[in-house]
């Protein structure tokens, strides 16, 4: 085998660097990158159970329980009885969570802009298209995008 770096390491390293930039930008909002993604999914879905969210993100119920407990404590989501299944609860964005989601989208736009400035808009658009295709090929998807509760929003 030739003495060259494995190409996927560049993806891993870039992903790590981008997530660290995102974490830094989200710090003033007091939300972590993965929490922001859960808020985004709930914004798209309207409401969801913890089990639905865990399935959408490919997480264990225990991991999602920890995440939602933190979001509930922060006042970013609310829990209420499911109108269709009175023995179950659903989660939805609180008013504060909806406002924060607007700020999260602004941070995401800023990071997109940094990428455009770093490699040029044509390369950035091509990179987004290719990584989107790779993600889908590997079985990934945008959490909440195909949910039956999904509101008509186009955030990914």
TrEMBL record:
<keyword id="KW-0805">Transcription regulation</keyword>
<dbReference type="InterPro" id="IPR036388">
    <property type="entry name" value="WH-like_DNA-bd_sf"/>
</dbReference>
<keyword id="KW-0238">DNA-binding</keyword>
<protein>
    <submittedName>
        <fullName>DNA-binding MarR family transcriptional regulator</fullName>
    </submittedName>
</protein>
<keyword id="KW-0804">Transcription</keyword>
<dbReference type="InterPro" id="IPR000835">
    <property type="entry name" value="HTH_MarR-typ"/>
</dbReference>
<feature type="domain" description="HTH marR-type">
    <location>
        <begin position="1"/>
        <end position="136"/>
    </location>
</feature>
<dbReference type="InterPro" id="IPR036390">
    <property type="entry name" value="WH_DNA-bd_sf"/>
</dbReference>
<dbReference type="GO" id="GO:0003677">
    <property type="term" value="F:DNA binding"/>
</dbReference>
<dbReference type="GO" id="GO:0003700">
    <property type="term" value="F:DNA-binding transcription factor activity"/>
</dbReference>
<dbReference type="Pfam" id="PF12802">
    <property type="entry name" value="MarR_2"/>
</dbReference>
């Amino acid at each position: 085998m030739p003495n060259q770096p494995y190409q996927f390491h560049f993806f891993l390293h870039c992903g790590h660097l981008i997530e660290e930039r995102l974490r830094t930008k989200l710090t003033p909002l007091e939300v972590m990158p993965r929490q922001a993604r859960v808020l985004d999914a709930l914004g798209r879905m309207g409401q969801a159970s913890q089990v639905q969210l865990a399935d959408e993100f490919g997480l264990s119920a225990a991991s999602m329980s920890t995440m939602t407990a933190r979001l509930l404590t922060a006042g970013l989501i609310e829990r209420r009885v499911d109108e269709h299944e009175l023995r179950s609860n659903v989660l939805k964005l609180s008013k504060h969570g909806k406002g924060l989601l607007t700020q999260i989208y602004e941070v995401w736009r800023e990071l997109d802009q940094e990428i455009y400035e770093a490699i040029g808009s044509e390369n950035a658009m091509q990179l987004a298209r290719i990584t989107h295709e790779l993600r889908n090929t590997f079985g990934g998807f945008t959490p909440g995008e195909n949910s039956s509760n999904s509101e008509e929003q186009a955030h990914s």
